[in-house]
Design a protein that fits this description.
Blueprint: H1 2-9, H2 13-26, H3 29-32, H4 46-57, H5 67-74, H6 78-88
Helix pairs in contact: 1-2, 5-6
């Protein structure tokens, strides 16, 4: 029977067996949505995001924040600072970087 159902709906028989077992243990609620997956939880929590934004808005003693400098100050990776800055369009005083003009591929004339 599992093979018939699997062929009819185009999935593996293992998947049908898993659905059947989940239905038997949890009835309809057992198959309505997926179970939580294993794996690493995201490290960029809302609290950390607020901490990055707050620190960004307070200027350092000298100069201004760079990704690396703020990350080092907070003890996190520059990747998280970059993600938060992009989400919140920070730091505001910096102009967004555009694309650089391409160099011509034509050979240079020697003159």
């Amino acid at each position: 029977m599992t093979i018939d159902v699997a062929e009819r709906i185009g999935v593996s028989r293992q998947k049908v067996a898993r659905w059947r077992n989940r239905f038997l243990t949890g009835r309809l609620s057992g198959i309505e949505r997926d179970f939580p997956r294993s794996g690493r939880k995201p490290k960029l929590t809302p609290e950390l995001e607020r901490k990055i934004v707050k620190a960004t808005l307070v200027p350092p003693k000298e100069g201004r924040w760079s990704l690396r400098r703020l990350a080092e100050h907070l003890g996190i990776t520059p990747y998280f600072v970059n993600v938060v800055w992009h989400r919140h369009n920070l730091p505001e005083e910096r102009a967004p970087r555009g694309r650089r003009p391409r160099r011509s591929r034509a050979p240079r004339s020697r003159g």
